[in-house]
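Subject: sequence -> structure tokens, single chain

Hey, anyone have a minute? Need the predicted structure for the following. Not urgent.
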Amino acid sequence: MEKKTLITAEAEMQIPVTEPERQYYFIEKAKENLAKLMEQEKRSFTFCVTTFGCQMNARDSEKLVGILEQIGYVEEPDEEKADFVIYNTCTVRENANQRVYGRLGQLGRIKKKNPHMMIALCGCMMQEPEVVEKLKKSYRFVDLIFGTHNIYKFAELIVSRMNSGKMVIDIWKDTDKIVEDLPSERKYPFKSGVNIMFGCNNFCSYCIVPYVRGRERSRDPKAIIREIERLAEDGVVEVMLLGQNVNSYGKTLEHPMSFAQLLQEIEKIDKIERIRFMTSHPKDLSDELIEVMAQSKKICRHLHLPVQSGSTRILEKMNRRYTKEHYLGLVEKIRTAIPDISLTTDIIVGFPGETEEDFQETLDVVRKVEYDSAFTFIYSKRTGTPAAVMEGQIPDEVVKDRFGRLLEEVQTISARMCAKHEGTVQRVLVESHNEHDERLMTGRLSNNLLVHFPGDESMIGKFADVRLDECKGFYYIGKIVEK
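Reply:
Had a minute. Here:
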């Protein structure tokens, strides 16, 4: 860990040592520094946070935005015009790293014209030592570099940079620390992600996440409930519970609590009308969870259950710790208990050693489960993972052929599953204007599918009953049904 800071011994004595009080102290200090700069320059200062990667990163970015706004920065969507640019990075695939380097080069040129511009990099990519070394050597104009474990220290790091005028690097290899009650600025007023745990213990052989997000640690259930109660009071009607593997929630707590038990507690919170969660690992999905989902009036009828491969042999190489038969048995159990459930999945094509027979096993699972949709990926070699050095890497042309066949199968089945609801009236949470037609609004069903229908902005954040008139493959066109 490398850290450069300029705080006098006298000032150090006044700084709180407990969190989150310590960070609120630094928010005030950063605010004072920024106020002086704004007075000097006779203008406001802006920021732009760009998020790469998953919903965990999106939630982290909301925390960064909340801290920046408390300090006094104003959001600016165009990063080339912003005074403070923050990249919250992803490193699941190596080409994600290249995208960040490319955009950094652009920012370096812009920074030369704006002497007050600051650039910060955080997130999973920063947990890789070789990345930090490259930044120190070739991107000296970057001001702040920190990782996934100490995002809560953002204000403290900003003050260090403001005081020193030099690059500040603060990377933690791992942590067991969870800091509650820091500012956060939600993207949507009516729905919010809520972290229930951090890190991952699964070590799937193709995945870098456990190495960059650290070991699994669960948040205290009281802190989760408190956060959701506050969100409900602030107008949130839907929460998305986030974790790399929500099904193993509670194992690291002093008084263990299962994910199903946590869901039951969240269900009791007034004003919360919908509960979603992701991601679920098949090896940990319990009968207790299926029962709670079946009986719940608030848990959405959607389950994302990544299969990755239909071949037991490949699943073993992936270190997924379940078989094809176990997965199909689980699906049967879920569908029996919750007949109207929408199942979605992740599938990797072209994992090292995958034969045509293995691929046919995957197609067999897709046909038997009949997913509402599937995220399909061509295997991407990730340096630092066991799979990257496995023998039997599959030639590109073979992988692309299999990927095309899988996509065709998935899309055919998805269109058929989607069409089953045509003509029904469904309760929809209205989320936004339609991106392509200003006259239409876009809403989301409990099963996570989208529907577009005539309406206006006043409906955003509210529920409406919508008749699904026409299925368009992966979404519907509909009309509001007046009660």
